UniProtKB/TrEMBL annotation:
CDD domains: Rieske_RO_ferredoxin. Residues 4-100 form the Rieske domain. PANTHER family: 3-PHENYLPROPIONATE_CINNAMIC ACID DIOXYGENASE FERREDOXIN SUBUNIT, FERREDOXIN-RELATED. Keywords: 2Fe-2S, Iron, Iron-sulfur, Metal-binding. This is Non-heme iron oxygenase ferredoxin subunit. The keyword DNA damage does not apply. Transmembrane segments: none annotated. InterPro entries: Rieske_2Fe-2S (IPR017941), Rieske_2Fe-2S_sf (IPR036922). It comes from Microbacterium insulae. PROSITE patterns: RIESKE.
Length: 109
C-alpha cells in the first residue's frame, strides 16, 4: 500500500487532533506547537475512546476519558491507566496534502 491523502495541512489546527479514517484505520492527526505533524492510532488502548477528542500538550495526546497520555513520537503511554502503546504512522507533507500510509507503522523507540 502507499501513502494516502489524510487531510489538508491547512485544515489542521495547532495543538488539536483531527480524526481521519484510511482503509478502515482510525488515525489521530496532530499539528503540534512546533509545527510538526504527527499521526497515531486514534483509539485509546485503555478504554476504546477516540484520542482525537483528547488534549494535545507538547508532544503528547491525552485521552479525555481517563487521562492516559500518549507520546506523539512513539505511541507509548506515558501514564496509567493505559499500558499498551498505540501505533504511530509516518507522515509526508506534499504541498498542502498530509499523506499517511495506514498499513505501515513506525517502530517505537
Amino acid at each position: 500500500m502507499t501513502a494516502q491523502r489524510a487531510c489538508a495541512l491547512s485544515d489542521l489546527v495547532q495543538d488539536e487532533a483531527r480524526r481521519v479514517e484510511l482503509d478502515g484505520v482510525a488515525i489521530a492527526v496532530v499539528l503540534d506547537s512546533n509545527g510538526e505533524v504527527h499521526a497515531i492510532g486514534d483509539t485509546c488502548t485503555h478504554g476504546d475512546i477516540s484520542l482525537a477528542d483528547g488534549f494535545v500538550d507538547g508532544e503528547t495526546l491525552e485521552c479525555w476519558a481517563h487521562g492516559s497520555a500518549f507520546s506523539l513520537r512513539t505511541g507509548k503511554p506515558l501514564n496509567l491507566p493505559a499500558y499498551e502503546p498505540v501505533p504511530v504512522f509516518a507522515v509526508t507533507i506534499d504541498g498542502d496534502d498530509v499523506l499517511i500510509d495506514p498499513a505501515v507503522t513506525l517502530e517505537a523507540n
